[in-house]
């Protein structure tokens, strides 16, 4: 965690509609990419809705929010991405990813794939990942984050995941 004066704000959630309770896509961007990314009213972890990702053969459906925290996020900030998840994975070739992007005036300034990735199971579990934005990084346009299910070309590969209570905070 950084205490440098160049850091941005702290504590407040930059993710909008992280509990999916609006029941509509905006502000989420849903990528189908050969699978399914949808709001789900049948499975949730509090409230009524969650986000559901399901692969359909070789595919990578995803939920994304872009350029959150513009004007607030700064180099040296620590970004925490946190959400609840439940689901199943059938290997080989299945991955459940969380990716963070820095958005600068000239485009993407960094890409960070959280490792270890969330591990899906039949019980609600909370994923928490943190990343320190390197000093001098242009994040003037904020940050973007992507939660995706991926299946390669392996026969039988499958990912089904529900996500809920998504938050993105600075300097937790």
Account of the protein in words:
- With 172 residues, the protein is mainly β.
- It has one domain (29-170): Jelly Rolls, CATH 2.60.120.
- Helix content is 0%, strand content 47%.
- The protein contains no helices and 10 strands.
- The chain has strands at residues 29-31, 36-40, 50-54, 62-68, 78-90, 94-104, 107-113, 125-132, 143-151, 158-170.
- The strands form 2 sheets. Strands 1-4-9-6-7 form a 5-stranded antiparallel sheet, with no helix packed on it.
- The model is unreliable at 1-7 (pLDDT under 50).
Terminus-to-terminus distance: 8 Å
- Within the CATH hierarchy, at the fold level, what is the topology? Jelly Rolls
**Low-confidence sequence ranges:** 1-7
Total E-strand runs: 10
Radius of gyration over all CA atoms, rounded: 16 Å
β-strand amount = over 45%
| Fraction of helical residues | under 10%
Strand order of the largest sheet: 1-4-9-6-7
Following the backbone from N to C, one meets helices and strands in this order, namely EEEEEEEEEE
Shape: globular
- What is the oligomeric state here? single chain
Main sheet characteristics: 5 strands, antiparallel
Name of the CATH superfamily:
Galactose-binding domain-like
